[in-house]
Amino acid sequence: MDRLPSPTPAAGITRATALKTLAGLAASGLLALRAKAAPAAPDTETAETADGSRKPAEPKSVPAIEHESGIRSVRFGRRLRVPTHPGSVAVIDLLDAESFFETTVAYAGAIEKSRLFAGDFAGFVVAGIETTSDARKREYALTPTASSIDRRGEPLPGRKRAGGGAPEMLDWLSDPWQRETERLSGRETARRVLAGHSYAGLFTLHALLERPDAWDDFIAIDPSLWWDGGRWADAFHETRPNQWAGKRVYLAYAERPRRGSVGALDRSAPAKERIAEVLRRGGVEVIVRRFPDEVHGTVFWPAMYDAMKNFWLRMP
C-alpha cells in the first residue's frame, strides 16, 4: 500500500491550511477525509474603521478538526475517528461499521468528555470496518466454520455449506489493519478493543479464542451462538489462564425473541452460561448483560453504551 500522509489535527489552524491538507489527502486516491470545523472567514477578510476605510480584520481561530478518515478497498470499507486532543488512545475496532459507526463515535465523544471518565488514556479512536452489504459475503467473513444449518438447528435443504472465512479475516484484522490504523491516527495505543454484534459478535469470541493477545477488551453483543448448530460454541470448554489473564469481556444478549427465533434463543442458553463460566475461571473480567426489552436487531445501541460505560466510566 502506498504511504499516506498521516492526518494530524491541530488547534488554531487556518481554514486555508486545513483545506490544503484535505486536498493533499484526497489527491492520493486512497484516503477520504471528512472534516468538521466551524466556518471561518477568508484570510483576506477586512473590517470597516470609524473613518470608512478598511483594514485587515483580526484573524479568526478555527477549532481543531475532529475528523474521520476512510481507507477504501475492494473488499471492505473502512472509517477512522480520531480525537482532536493529544495523548494515548484506546482503539475500538468496530465491525459492521456501516450500521454502527456514527453511534459509537457519539458514545466515544460523550464518554471521553465526561467528568466520570476513568480511562488511563486520553480518548478513543473508532476504527470502523464496513464488512459488506452482501449478506453471503458477510456471513463468510465473520463465521469461524462452514455450515448448512439454520438458526433453528435445521439443515437447509439444497444449501451448500457456507461461511468459515473468519480465520482469514482475523489474520487481516489483527496485523495489517492494526498497523495501518495506528499509523493513520498517529497516536500511541493504550488499549485495543474488538466489538461486534450478531455474526460479528461471534467473530469477536472467535478472536478471543484464537488471537487473544491482539486485543485487551472484547465486546460481543448478541453473538450468533446458534451458528453451525451451536457446535462452534463447544470450543469454550477449557480455560486458558496464560492467554486470558487480565482480559475484559462484555457479553450482551437480547431476550425478547424475534419472530420465528424462539428455538434459537432456547438452544443457545446453555452456551451463554458455559462461555461466561469458562472465561471467569480463565482469569477474565466478565460482564454479562441481558436486555429483556430488546430484540436482536435493536440490542446493539443500549449494549454498546453499557459496555463503554462499564469499562471506562467511574460511576458514583
Please give a structural write-up.
- The protein is of the alpha/beta class and 316 residues long.
- The chain has one domain (66-312): 3-Layer(aba) Sandwich (Rossmann fold).
- It is 34% helix and 22% strand.
- The chain has a nine-stranded mixed sheet with strand order 1-4-5-7-6-10-11-12-13, with helices on both faces. A two-stranded antiparallel sheet has the order 2-3.
- β2 (46-48) and β3 form a beta hairpin.
Which residue ranges are poorly predicted, with pLDDT under 50 across at least 5 consecutive positions? Answer: 1-50, 54-75
CATH architecture: 3-Layer(aba) Sandwich
- State the fourth-level CATH superfamily: Alpha/Beta hydrolase fold, catalytic domain
Shape: globular
Radius of gyration: 23 Å
Broad structural category: alpha/beta
Signal peptide: 1-37
Biased composition (Low complexity): 38-50
GO molecular function, one term: hydrolase activity, acting on ester bonds
Family: Belongs to the esterase D family.
Gist of the model:
By secondary structure, the protein is an alpha/beta fold.
Salient structural properties:
about 325 residues, 13 strands, single chain, alpha/beta, disordered N terminus, nine-stranded mixed sheet, Rossmann fold, Siderophore_Hydrolase_D
